[in-house]
Amino acid sequence: MKFGIDRAKGLDRYLTSWKSADDPSPGDFTYRLDSSGYPQLILRNRSVVQFRSGPWNGLRFRGFPQLRPNPVYSFGFVFNQNEIYYYFNILNSSVPSMLVLNENGIAQRFSWVDRTHDWILYSSAETDDCDTYALCGGNGNCNIASSPKCVCLTGFLPKYPSDWEFGDWSNGCVRRTELDCQGGDKFLKYTEVKLPDTRHSWFNESMNLQDCEQK
Fold first, then answer.
1. What is the DSSP letter of 61?
2. Domain span including residue 75
3. What's the pLDDT tens digit per position in 39-77?
4. Is the pLDDT of residue 184 over 80?
């Protein structure tokens, strides 16, 4: 299956939820490849972003740690002048698999089991609360193993400390001091995180990592 955009043919392949479990008319949720900035998969409730996959990093979408080589299907990402799409190929034709956006706005993959004659849940796009879009606000970081799960990045403080203490992290964090690009401020390295929203980003495919750091 190709999931995404064919510019030459004017196609945009995406999923729309049913209105309810027994009403197949279009519901409120869509799951599609967003090509503004650097492409990523975005799940919306009408116009409100609920979840994003993060950008493709050469192996998988950064926000899909569960997307790894497996016995059911292979997958990849194509990004050129004419097409931008995520794809998957079934490895064993006797084991059908399908990607579904259900009526509650959850993107799930199911596999068919002959023994039980039923579909079983193989994986889900959203795995925990930290997959909720912008849960910790700007300059906040979500760690499901922490309590509270939201913390400010190094050098930042909660924008509204009283709200933050009571579990409303939506307004995020602000700098402790003004940014000083000519002084001592520099980039800090974070690992095991989803990259920030790339919809308003620009990119240069000819740059290497050293060029990027200097820029």
1. B
2. 2-94
3. 999 999 999 999 999 999 999 999 998 899 999 999 999
4. no
Give the chain's count of helices (H) and strands (E): 2, 15
> Total domain count for the chain?
2
Helix (H, G, I), strand (E, B) or coil at 210: helix
The position carrying tokens 């950008």 is 55
Q: Are both 9 and 90 inside the same structural domain?
A: yes
Give the model confidence (pLDDT) of 125-178 as tens digits: 998 999 999 999 999 999 999 999 999 999 999 999 999 999 999 999 999 999
Question: Do residues 8 and 81 both lie within one domain?
Answer: yes
